[in-house]
Amino acid sequence: MLQATLPEVFVSISLTEPVVVLKVSDCIDQLLGYQPVDFLSGNISFRQLIHTGDQDIAESLFSSEFSQISGDFNIRLRQGNGHIRCVKGYFTKKLASTGVVLDLSLQDAKSLSQLTPHMMPNFKAMMDNTNDYIYFKDRNHVFTGASQTLVSLTNPSEHWTDLLGQTDYDVFPEEYADIYYELEKQVFAGIPIAHEIQETLDNAGKKGWVDNRKYPIQNESGEIIGLFGIARDITDSHLKQQKIEQLVAEQSAILDNKLVGMVTAKARNITWANSAVETLLGYKKGALVGAPTRQLYVSQDEYEAVGAAYANIKLEGVIRRQCEFLRHDGQSIWVDMHGMVLSEADGISLWIMVDVTARKLAEDALLKSEAKFRALYDSNGEAAMLLDEHGFFDCNKAALKLFGIKTIEEFCLNSPADLSPLQQPCGTNSEVLAKQKIVEAMEIGNLRFEWTHKRIDTDETFPAEVLLSVIELDGRAVIMAAVRDTTESKRSELLLRASEQQLSFVLEGSNLGFWDWDIQSGHVQRNHIWAEMLGYTFEEVQLTTQQWTDFLHPDDVQNAWKSIQEHLEGKTSVHESTYRMRTKSGDYKWVLDRARVVQRDVNGRPTRMAGTHADVTEQKLAENDLRIAAAAFETQDGMFVTDVDGTILRVNQAYTAITGYTAADAVGKNPRILKSGRHDSEFYASMWQSLASTGLWSGEVWNKRKGGEVYPEYQTITAVKSTDGITTHYVASFADITERIRMQEELKNRAEKDFLTGLTNRRHFIELAEAELIRAQRYSSPLSMLMMDIDFFKCINDTYGHKAGDLVLQKLAVVCKEVLREIDVIGRLGGEEFSVLLPETGVLRAVEVAGRLRQALESARVVVDEVNHEVTKPLCFTVSIGVAAMSSVDATVDSMLLQADVALYKAKNSGRNKVVANV
């Protein structure tokens, strides 16, 4: 395209403050669109027209110093129509009577090269047919050559020759032209190669990305006279990488979930573990990788059972078990464990673990108070025995079989030392060491250790694992010893250790490698990035096709060559294959190979093929992480993912099972659909403050199911951040803790309530009385105490039986609750003895309350079956009540109980069914 030549413009500027334009050519309006008077009057500042990206040049030009008095420069000036014009200039500085004067000679950069140069046919063919964006520019940033592909990004242009004589500011939006110009300034400043990933905008308004590289063009004397650039379209790979980074960030939040531990295993060795399972088991980061899973199990039988179940996993799909694991510090914990096949071809399995120790301990606490102990003890497959300070007093059938003894009576005649050889393998006397272990178990509650035992019938010794547990039996602390013969497990453990192996993963990244294959000669050219991608220098890489196959993984050679051959035969438009290549260190990297035939002979046969190598190792590993995370997402705990505004994007099946909301119900909604109304605004403000400051929040929340039921859950919320630290998503996981809270409440009731009457028991009554006494003394409030006893209760038991006695006690509890206030406290101190605490009540008022209570109980009736259970009759009973009041600030609960007890004694001695006050 021919450009009209614009005249040269001269400007003279005084650099002495204030800076003013002294002279300007009349033709400046053709160059910049302003009249000379605009500059001479000061309405337009010449310096303010200089592009912000050229302020370094402006600083040098407008400096009053004489470090450089003349020279050439290239600069961008903003015209009156708002567009940018690229200008070639020459300046001189001189000293005049008014001070330092700057003289400028300015020429439109496009006017310096108007004619299309004669081009070689090969060059023109390349410009017409290349897939890359290729261009040439002179020293003034003016196009002297360009590929046809640039037409799709420039406007106005229909053919690449339309770009000749233009600058970027004539054919690109200014914001893009600024970016391209800055990269070119680096080339003209002497940088051998200017490289940048840059955004593009095509004529349809669609954004893209290119890998833009610019190189200097020099004349024979080494002077830079222009530049050559090539930009490769990487939009697809750029968008794919962005998507991968987003997915990896989202899934890493799932993998690093603090509530759920995860490991992968191969051949029962751990190949990967997330931070949650490392914390759960007390290991440092990375310490579990390569470890055998056997070291996690407390029980060899449990380890073998999990192995047997895993063998049938293809039929069952998922293994679900509750196991006791051993932490790194030696303590044991209980976990709910789910196992599933992650990669059948590689033999890799995924195991998801949730700590249920608290729940297990609560269950065990309940179990202690149940009558099931004996049945469990007798039916236990492992040898179990009971001992106290006098020795063994019981054992189960498994213990008799293990030690070769016929009866329990015969077993109890032996001591722990009798069931052991004289010395243990450590050299210590068995009797001495056994006593030490028993003392240690009594101190800490339970103790697990290895021991060598002996059969009584054959004197044969065998290795065993012993667990000593302190339990409460019939109101006293005894030791239950569980003994397991580990002969077979020891043998298996030795075999297992002999077969242990460790795996490692290598992640490396690099730029794009290039190769150019002359098919007829077999000669291959590669760039240095291709070599460095595999850990070699450029000189170390031999340029033959055979060497390429030597790098390939043996399993990938056939598929790689097949893809190339199909392209050479014209069956595919492009060769694209992903395979593994061996590095200098012997490891393998995943490489994405893309190529096509670039040259054919006169008969159409391929003679030349070129392509690129991209390291996609991280992408492959990320895909594996995505598979792990996808499997982990379907854990037994509820999980959901929201965007940054809180809109639910995904939920798992456990979410539906816990809340009642299906994915169709929840997706697109806010988590507020679960809101129960039990938490105030401060609770949620604190939650969001924690998420904003740390990216994590966890705690107990009361939510509401779809059916309206309010329930408690333990929830963890994790903020998912992009690579630049901006929160993009939130991942929440939660577990329904209704059963755990119910168990806690039940244990609390058992600790504080009398099991027969439901009244406060003696210990808890004393605690409440002491707290109320402190309050009364602090505020000088009255406080009274009643001591109550059922008259002739022994006769009721002897005449009608203990069942009748229990009914009388229960009836008394019901009547007392009806008569007394809510603030009054009644407790059963033992047998038929009860006490009532009356806050804010003086002695006279207390006597009135006691009188009403006595009358109500006298009127009460209990229906009792006769011995033959055929006739019923009403049974009445009476009570005697003693009353005492807090007499001084030095009063104690014990003193008040004593005073009330004295008054009760007087009521009994004066005929019973009376109220007596101790005043």
UniProtKB/TrEMBL annotation:
<dbReference type="InterPro" id="IPR000700">
    <property type="entry name" value="PAS-assoc_C"/>
</dbReference>
<keyword id="KW-0548">Nucleotidyltransferase</keyword>
<dbReference type="InterPro" id="IPR000160">
    <property type="entry name" value="GGDEF_dom"/>
</dbReference>
<protein>
    <submittedName>
        <fullName>Putative diguanylate cyclase YegE</fullName>
        <ecNumber>2.7.7.65</ecNumber>
    </submittedName>
</protein>
<dbReference type="Pfam" id="PF08448">
    <property type="entry name" value="PAS_4"/>
</dbReference>
<dbReference type="InterPro" id="IPR052163">
    <property type="entry name" value="DGC-Regulatory_Protein"/>
</dbReference>
<dbReference type="InterPro" id="IPR029787">
    <property type="entry name" value="Nucleotide_cyclase"/>
</dbReference>
<feature type="domain" description="PAC">
    <location>
        <begin position="193"/>
        <end position="246"/>
    </location>
</feature>
<dbReference type="InterPro" id="IPR013656">
    <property type="entry name" value="PAS_4"/>
</dbReference>
<keyword id="KW-0808">Transferase</keyword>
<dbReference type="InterPro" id="IPR000014">
    <property type="entry name" value="PAS"/>
</dbReference>
<feature type="domain" description="PAC">
    <location>
        <begin position="575"/>
        <end position="628"/>
    </location>
</feature>
<dbReference type="Pfam" id="PF08447">
    <property type="entry name" value="PAS_3"/>
</dbReference>
<feature type="domain" description="PAS">
    <location>
        <begin position="499"/>
        <end position="571"/>
    </location>
</feature>
<dbReference type="InterPro" id="IPR043128">
    <property type="entry name" value="Rev_trsase/Diguanyl_cyclase"/>
</dbReference>
<dbReference type="InterPro" id="IPR035965">
    <property type="entry name" value="PAS-like_dom_sf"/>
</dbReference>
<feature type="domain" description="PAS">
    <location>
        <begin position="622"/>
        <end position="670"/>
    </location>
</feature>
<dbReference type="Pfam" id="PF13426">
    <property type="entry name" value="PAS_9"/>
</dbReference>
<dbReference type="GO" id="GO:0052621">
    <property type="term" value="F:diguanylate cyclase activity"/>
</dbReference>
<dbReference type="Pfam" id="PF00990">
    <property type="entry name" value="GGDEF"/>
</dbReference>
<dbReference type="InterPro" id="IPR001610">
    <property type="entry name" value="PAC"/>
</dbReference>
<dbReference type="InterPro" id="IPR013655">
    <property type="entry name" value="PAS_fold_3"/>
</dbReference>
<feature type="domain" description="PAC">
    <location>
        <begin position="697"/>
        <end position="749"/>
    </location>
</feature>
<feature type="domain" description="GGDEF">
    <location>
        <begin position="781"/>
        <end position="919"/>
    </location>
</feature>
